[in-house]
Amino acid sequence: MEKEAILNLLEEKHQELLDWLINQPKENWGKGPDNKWTTGQQVLHVVNSLQLLNNVLSYPRFFLKYKFGVCNRPTRSYDTIVEKYQQKLKANQDKAAIFNKKLKKPLQKNRERLINRLQIQNKKLQFKFKRISNLNLDTLVIPHPLMGKMTIREIVMWAAHHTEHHTTILKNNYSEENYC
Asked: CA-CA distance, 39 to 48, in Å (whole number)?
């Protein structure tokens, strides 16, 4: 997938989440279906993952190459990344359940601040991604906790899907038949 298409995908997926959040009753922020993350926790998780990615992309390219190496295979497509991610989620539900219990519940008073952080982290990611050469996007790798090493291009495509994944979860959890 080309750089411009990835940037558009990132923007589209984040805008969809933001639109959904804005249209939700504020009291849903701290509530959630039984044994599921609250809206606030879902947003916090997405913000944290974007912030971690932005932090890694702030390192000098030579450091990334030294620390993690370079890719020895062709870059995977968006659809392949989505499919592999869904498979890894299914195969590692136990690990995910342990990880999920550790996430704090953001307070209602921090709602606007966290939504603002979501927007800032998304814009930072787009800015950093634009500045990386196509060669580095396809050769430098970054470790993902579930997916293993991914090229920068792949992990940014994953970030777009990750936002969509959590938006879908929120929409399903707060649909009339599941929540009311």
From this structure: 14
Residue 92 CA to its chain's centroid (Å): 17
**Cβ of 33: how many Cβ atoms within 10 Å?**
12
Q: How would you class 147 by CB atoms within 10 Å of its CB: exposed for 0-12, middle for 13-18, buried for 19 or more?
A: middle
Quick one: which of 25, 18, 2 has its CA closest to 121?
18
Angle between helix axes 39-57 and 3-22 (nearest 10 degrees) is: 150
Provide the pLDDT confidence category of residue 180 given band limits of 50, 70 and 90: very low
What is the maximum alpha-carbon separation in the chain?
Answer: 52
Surface-to-core class of residue 6, CB atoms within 10 Å of its CB (0-12 exposed, 13-18 middle, 19+ buried)? buried
Tell me how far apart the alpha carbons of residues 127 and 95 are, in angstroms, rounded to a whole number.
Answer: 32
- What are the tens digits of pLDDT across the range 29-65? 988 777 788 899 999 999 999 999 999 999 999 999 9
Contacts of 119 (CB under 8 A, 6+ apart): 14, 18
| DSSP 8-state symbol, 70 | B
Confidence (pTM): 0.92
